[in-house]
Specification:
This protein folds into four domains: 115 residues, no CATH class; 113 residues, no CATH class; 84 residues; 99 residues, OB fold (Dihydrolipoamide Acetyltransferase, E2P) (Beta Barrel). Helix 2 crosses helix 3. The protein has 13 helices and 16 strands. It is α+β, with helices and mostly antiparallel strands. Strands 5, 6, 7, 8, 9 and 10 form a six-stranded antiparallel β-sheet that branches.
């Protein structure tokens, strides 16, 4: 069994506040008819409103959940309640052989993993028809190039007319050019254009931020028109920005990086019915950040569940980039809870930003010079104190340098951050977008707190 999980780590998995509250209500022994565990698997039967009890089971190695209840939420309240019971009353879990319904689930998971591995190996071994593949690439290149030329003309017109009239324009203006980029098989450009439409109504400095984003789009166009003359890593960044990404099988053929990876922060956002989860890892030996992206539609579960504050031994393969951040897990061992902050959290922070906020931003600037299209950059800061000013919340380091926190931070989160600090310095990890820091996690002495969901 891994080390003891905490209630905060369990509740971080809740899909919403209602599930967390209901799960908390089920985290008592009286609610469960039977409980059991074997190695890294726990299970229980919870009597609900129906005739038969709900059968709930958790594989702690990911963790992965299954429950016989009809809930479409994942994990459901029964899974959360069982997990909380393990975290708070581990002695209630009796070591015993699993019942048939648990053994069947474990067998099906093992078979599914084997089939997935065989499928991946088969895909990697199969050689695609090079002629057909070349034709597909050439056809997409033609469509993207036509879309890029149209976007260049559109940008020229917008800059020539000036930005002052943009607040009076309808959203349809942005949606029309974005839809054209989708037709040109450049969905990444379409996403950026639609995001631009939302910036216009977000504060007095909107024109500066719009002009900066338009400049990055123009740089992207200039780069794509010269793509064959650029280094391979820069070509990969350009294609990624356009939305021309590699499939996972291709990525996994790259060099693997083995380390003990700390799950340092996590954030889940919803775009229409698509949920996107960004999980940041930090390699304790290699001093390397890695970003894992997971996608799920509606109430479907994410493919993998990694708990912030835990760590795992794993092989990661990074997507090609001039500044690699996004990665895939190639192989992994069971996740483990750290009984205290990771070895030398202060040393980790010093390795990333040795002397405070100024040096951290200098590190970001160097990364941006390698890849100008970085949208989010991982920052790990130590010895910073939260402060509130008229314009919003800030972090201040020992030299008096300040960093503005995201305007989207709920007011309660700012006060919670201040309460955790008690007016003293703490360690903070978050995503920096060039203007604001979104806090994802905080260390206070020996305790870890997640802020990402």
């Amino acid at each position: 069994m891994p080390a003891q999980w905490t209630a905060d780590q369990v509740l971080a998995l809740a899909p919403d506040a209602a599930s967390a509250k209901n799960g908390r209500g089920l985290a008592t022994r009286q609610k469960w008819i039977a409980l059991g565990q074997q190695q890294s698997v726990i299970w229980g039967e919870c009597q609900g409103s129906g005739k038969n009890p709900y059968q709930t089971q958790i594989d702690l190695s990911e963790p992965a959940f299954r429950c016989s209840c009809p809930s479409r939420k994942f994990p459901c309240k029964h899974g959360l309640g069982l997990f909380l019971l393990l975290a708070e009353q581990p002695g209630e879990m009796v070591e015993t052989d699993p019942p048939a319904w648990v053994a069947e689930w474990l067998a099906s998971r093992s078979q599914r993993a084997e089939k997935q591995a065989e499928k991946q190996t088969k895909r990697q071994d199969q050689t695609a028809d090079p002629i057909a593949q070349a034709k597909r690439v050439a056809e997409r290149q033609r469509k993207v190039s036509a879309g890029i030329q149209e976007l260049r003309l559109w940008l020229d017109d917008r800059v020539r007319q000036g930005l002052a009239t943009l607040p009076q324009e309808s959203y349809q203006m942005w949606d029309t050019i974005a839809a054209r980029m989708v037709d040109a098989q450049a969905p990444g450009l379409a996403r950026q254009l639609r995001e631009l439409a939302g910036i216009i109504h977000t504060g007095a400095d909107w024109s500066d931020r719009v002009l900066e984003r338009l400049g990055r789009l123009y740089l992207l166009i200039e780069g794509f028109e010269r793509i064959e003359t650029l280094p391979t890593a820069v070509q990969a960044d350009l294609r990624t920005q356009i939305g021309w990404s590699l499939n996972q099988e291709e990525v996994l053929t790259g060099q693997a990086h083995t380390d003990l990876w700390l799950v340092i922060g996590q954030r889940t956002q919803e775009e229409e019915r698509l949920r996107v989860r960004r999980t940041w890892l930090y390699g304790i030996a290699t001093h390397t950040f890695a970003l894992l992206l997971d996608f799920a539609h509606g109430h479907q579960p994410f493919e993998q569940s990694l708990l912030p504050g835990t760590c795992l031994e794993a092989e990661l393969v990074f997507y090609p980039s001039a500044y690699p951040l996004r990665a895939l897990i190639k192989t992994r061992q069971e996740s483990a809870v750290l009984p205290k902050p990771p070895p030398g959290i202060e040393l980790i922070a010093e390795a990333v930003c040795p002397s405070g906020i100024s040096e951290a931003i200098a590190t970001y600037s160097k990364a941006l010079a390698n890849c100008p299209w970085l949208e989010r950059f991982p920052l790990l800061l130590q010895d910073v104190i939260p402060r509130q000013e008229e314009k919003g919340w800030l972090l201040q380091d020992q030299q008096g340098i300040v960093l503005p926190l995201s305007r989207r931070m709920e007011a309660t989160q700012g006060w919670q951050l201040l309460a955790l600090s008690g007016g003293h310095a703490l360690s903070v990890f978050g995503e920096w977008d060039g203007a604001f820091l979104t806090v994802l996690s905080v260390w206070v002495e020996d305790s870890y707190y997640g802020f990402g969901n």
